[in-house]
Amino acid sequence: MTQSIPTAGHRALTLAVSLWAASLLGGCGLSSITSGLGSGIMGGDSASSETSAVSEAKLLAAAQAGEGGLPSGGIEVAAGCPRFTTWPRENFITIYEPGRVGDGMAVVHRGEITKTARECTIEPGRVTVRYGFSGRILLGPKGRPGTITLPVSVFVTDDKRTRLTTDKMTVDVNVSLENPIGYFSAVRTVTFDISEGSRPGDYQVFVAFDRTVPGAG
Predict the structure, then answer these.
(1) Residue-range domain boundaries for the chain
(2) What is the pTM of this model?
(3) Tens of each residue's pLDDT in the chain, 217 residues
(4) Contacts of 161 (CB under 8 A, 6+ apart)
(5) In a 10 Å sphere around its CB, with 0-12 CB exposed, 13-18 middle and 19+ buried, how is residue 114 labelled?
């Protein structure tokens, strides 16, 4: 006998499928990447405050709230502080069943980075950036409940987009049929040297999903 999904779980799964379908139609996942935590992080002073404003808890809350809008601080380089944002078109990743990449009905799950934030400390010849990002993972029509792990890369570039350093990590989210949307957040610190004659604002820090995993599209 086939056991039916409970009504609440069915409604939740339907919501998740609707969300990933809307994202696919949009082509680039969510339309905005923002700190969601106020101008003090994305557009404030270059030196970090005594109590860090970039925290996993705040970023996770921002992702769960689904706050939208892209303030000017998210686009412009703050005074002397390197910008932190997603690598172009790499704020989302969709995993398909083997041999069915691009088939909307073969989606296993989809990851989206929806919020970013950073603050930094500038010293002679060196910059330390405390960065954070958060987002969500949604089950697709072929998704299965359990823990989903997706690889992420964070890298620093100079004014010529040459990569200077790369940090690889994973994000893990537990999803179920009753709760097919899970949220993640991560906060790390990177320190790098700046060349003589350059400014800290000439450098950028990017986050991106790693698309080398099987079934990625």
Answers:
(1) 7-209
(2) 0.73
(3) 433 334 444 444 444 444 444 444 343 332 222 233 332 333 333 333 334 578 888 888 988 887 543 332 333 344 578 999 999 889 999 999 999 999 999 999 999 999 999 999 999 999 999 999 999 999 999 999 999 999 999 999 998 899 999 999 999 999 998 999 999 999 999 999 999 888 999 999 999 999 999 999 8
(4) none
(5) buried
